[in-house]
């Protein structure tokens, strides 16, 4: 694997020569120089060891080991000590195919959505044994791997086993009463014992015996698995008669027994799937419904496993050892994480309940608002997955357009629907809530997201390093954007007229001290001359300059100074073992999902704003707090999860970039779009924030830049960021409601 270096660019010391490159003997006999070069190389390797999104890919950084006698010249022998100490950013990443390589490359591009999950199917041989077990069918006999008396198995017995077994006993009794269903009654009796405790037992599909004697021929046979004679109730059953008797027995079973048991297994399957850790129980029930219940009784054989590694005769249908597996949080269906799959029906429930039950006969506004807000989480996930899939399968131009168009669609949808509702009702409170949500997103992505990633990543890794140069670009844009966004606010503080709602003389002296409430700077004095002649033109100017600065930042990082990230993507498989890209979502499928998710997002945002009014008016909690917490951070939960996953893989650079990019987009894209929207659809939204928003945002940005100054961090620094965030939340919690609410 060769790492290409552009002509004219100074090659960094950590960019190791490739295995195919000719080896140059060391001509420096100076022991001092050798020691110095060796120390420098170790320093560079230690610095660069933290880069790369490698854990989930099963790949590695390519650093060939060269014997000392034939090693290439060290970086200190080629460059100065100063250059060696700055070799922090060279990273070689590996990917299974070109699509994954494109996705990894997009993760390091400024303005592109950072996505941890795979957009293609991973080769089965590259997966760990833990992950392989998650996707395996319950038909593999591994033998007893230990005691089956585990907490998960006991939980199955308490939640499902006892009543499912009792139901089988009742169905067996009904089958015996009908006489014609007696063969199925015996089957249900045996299955009652199996589903009471299915662990360490196996259900087989056996051949139909040709005669009654063929069934009886097995009496007294021994089995290595059973350790003795086969118990009678576990032997294949024979039909007593044929023709009419067989058809009548099957009809009784299909009418009285099978539907009830299938319904019970369906309930178990859905409940266990929603609990996630009990997905093996869901597989057990689904497989029993589809493979066991349709079989005639004489083809079902239930056996207990007592010895290991003994092959079984006949097809194994069910063989379960554990009811629970804590690693099922990694499980994915067609590339979609199981949590997003489980939350998808919530979107349907929210839409049906919200638009069908408009008069709130079934549920109240609080329930509908909560459901609408929770529905935003899976929709945000699907939008992110669709954007990552389209970008990974397209060229740079298409990826940039998709990320710029739909990257902030989740937040903008909610903000615009809230402003429209506030304008229709003449309620200024909605505009204040939107400002609080904007500030909450900015503060949360600057403090909480990187701080939480530092804490969780620091638990596994003692010290984490990141690309300080790329973080510096985002920090500079943050300083610029915060200054631009709050410039109209500072202007109004300087030139606006302070107006108070009510004032009380606390000293009973006309010249004494006055205590005033609900004070604000009035920009509409003298028929709004200050606002329309000075503040509004400043707002429009800032709204033009901020997107222009964002475009310059994109051009700087993606075109002229791409070496800041210095990422090289290579194939991690040996020659002859290349894997074709099997994408989870094609471009057209991802586009359809993206549009549908955006449409559903708009509907959920409309429901959330429709039912937030009673919460704002009747709640004792400050509207500031509701805006900066619930409305700001819930849509960002998928991004927070991505950041945590990157931090656990010792890739803190992307964790920090996730928060920085969202914060930059809030100031440089979302706020200018809202200002542009107010031009065509007049609302109560003005780019003048309260003092609390200004101080919280500026302090957060300054603190973040101080923490990120040295390019390394640990869990203590992350704890500082998280604690400061919670202190600001406490300030918002105890703050009085904004004027107009």
From TrEMBL:
Gene3D superfamilies noted in UniProt: NCX, central ion-binding region
Domain Sodium/calcium exchanger membrane region stretches: 367-487, 590-732
Segments crossing the lipid bilayer: 154-179, 251-281, 336-356, 362-384, 396-417, 437-459, 471-491, 538-558, 590-609, 621-641, 662-681, 687-708, 715-735
Coiled-coil ranges from the UniProt annotation: none
Molecular function GO labels: calcium:proton antiporter activity
GO cellular component, one term: vacuolar membrane
Region (Disordered), start-end ranges: 1-34
Name of the protein this chain belongs to: VNX1 protein
């Amino acid at each position: 694997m060769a790492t290409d270096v552009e002509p004219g660019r100074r090659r960094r010391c950590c960019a190791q020569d490739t295995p195919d490159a000719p080896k140059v003997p060391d001509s420096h006999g100076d022991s001092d120089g050798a020691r110095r070069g060796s120390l420098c190389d170790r320093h560079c390797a230690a610095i660069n060891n933290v880069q790369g999104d490698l854990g989930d890919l099963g790949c590695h950084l390519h650093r060939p080991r060269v014997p000392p006698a034939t090693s290439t010249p060290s970086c200190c022998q080629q460059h100065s000590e100063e250059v060696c100490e700055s070799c922090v950013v060279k990273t070689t990443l590996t990917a299974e195919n070109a699509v994954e390589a494109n996705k990894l490359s997009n993760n390091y591009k400024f303005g592109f959505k950072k996505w941890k999950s795979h957009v293609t199917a991973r080769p089965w041989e590259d997966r760990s044994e833990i992950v392989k077990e998650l996707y395996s069918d319950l038909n593999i006999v591994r033998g007893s791997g230990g005691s089956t008396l585990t907490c998960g198995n006991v939980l199955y017995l308490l939640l499902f086993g006892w009543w499912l077994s009792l139901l089988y006993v009742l169905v067996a009794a009904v089958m015996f009463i009908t006489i014609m269903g007696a063969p199925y009654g015996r089957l249900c009796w045996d299955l009652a014992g199996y589903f009471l405790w299915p662990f360490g037992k196996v259900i087989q599909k056996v051949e139909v015996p040709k005669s009654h004697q063929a069934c009886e021929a097995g009496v007294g046979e021994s089995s290595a698995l059973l350790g003795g004679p086969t118990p009678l109730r576990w032997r294949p059953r024979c039909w007593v008669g044929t023709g009419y008797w067989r058809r009548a027995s099957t009809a009784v079973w299909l009418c009285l027994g099978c539907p009830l048991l299938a319904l019970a297994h369906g309930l178990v399957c859905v409940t266990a799937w929603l609990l996630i850790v009990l997905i093996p129980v869901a597989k057990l029930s689904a497989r029993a419904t589809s493979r066991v219940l349709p079989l005639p009784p004489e083809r079902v054989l239930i056996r207990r496993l007592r010895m290991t590694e003994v092959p079984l005769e006949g097809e194994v249908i069910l063989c379960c050892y554990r009811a629970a597996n804590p690693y099922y949080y990694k499980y994915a269906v067609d590339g979609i994480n199981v949590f997003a799959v489980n939350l998808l029906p919530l979107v349907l429930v929210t839409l049906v309940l919200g638009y069908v039950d408009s008069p709130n006969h079934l549920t109240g506004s609080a329930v509908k608002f909560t459901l609408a807000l929770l529905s935003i989480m899976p929709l945000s996930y699907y939008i992110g997955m669709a954007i990552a899939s389209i970008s990974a399968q397209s060229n740079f131009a298409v990826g940039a357009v998709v990320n710029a168009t739909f990257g902030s669609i989740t937040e903008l949808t909610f903000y615009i629907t809230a402003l429209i509702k506030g304008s229709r009702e003449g309620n200024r409170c909605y505009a204040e809530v939107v400002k609080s949500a904007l500030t909450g997103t900015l503060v949360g992505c600057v403090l909480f997201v990187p701080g939480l990633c530092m804490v969780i990543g620091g638990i596994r890794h003692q010290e984490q390093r990141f690309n300080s140069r790329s973080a510096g670009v985002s920090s500079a844009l943050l300083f610029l954007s915060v200054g631009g966004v709050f410039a109209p606010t500072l202007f109004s503080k300087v030139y606006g007229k302070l107006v108070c709602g009510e004032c009380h003389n606390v000293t009973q002296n006309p010249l004494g001290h006055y205590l005033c409430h609900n004070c604000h700077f009035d920009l509409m004095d003298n028929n709004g001359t200050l606002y329309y002649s000075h503040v509004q033109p400043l707002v429009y100017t800032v709204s033009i300059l901020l997107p222009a600065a964002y475009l310059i930042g994109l051009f700087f990082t993606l075109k002229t100074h791409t070496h800041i990230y210095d990422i090289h993507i290579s194939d991690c498989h040996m020659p002859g073992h290349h894997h074709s890209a099997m994408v989870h979502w094609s471009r057209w499928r991802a586009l359809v999902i993206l549009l549908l998710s955006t449409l559903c997002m708009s509907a959920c945002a409309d429901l959330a704003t429709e039912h937030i009014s009673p919460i704002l008016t009747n709640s004792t909690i400050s509207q500031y707090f509701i805006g900066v917490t619930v409305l700001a951070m819930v849509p960002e939960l998928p991004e927070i999860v991505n950041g945590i996953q990157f931090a656990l893989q010792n890739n803190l650079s992307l964790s920090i970039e996730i928060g920085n990019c969202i914060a930059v987009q809030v100031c440089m894209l979302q706020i200018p779009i809202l200002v542009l929207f107010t031009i065509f659809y007049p609302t109560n939204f003005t780019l003048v924030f309260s003092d609390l928003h200004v101080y919280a945002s500026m302090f957060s940005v300054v603190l973040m830049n101080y923490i990120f100054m040295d390019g390394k961090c640990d869990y203590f620094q992350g704890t500082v960021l998280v604690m400061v965030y919670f202190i600001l939340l406490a300030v918002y919690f105890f703050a009085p409601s904004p004027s107009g609410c």
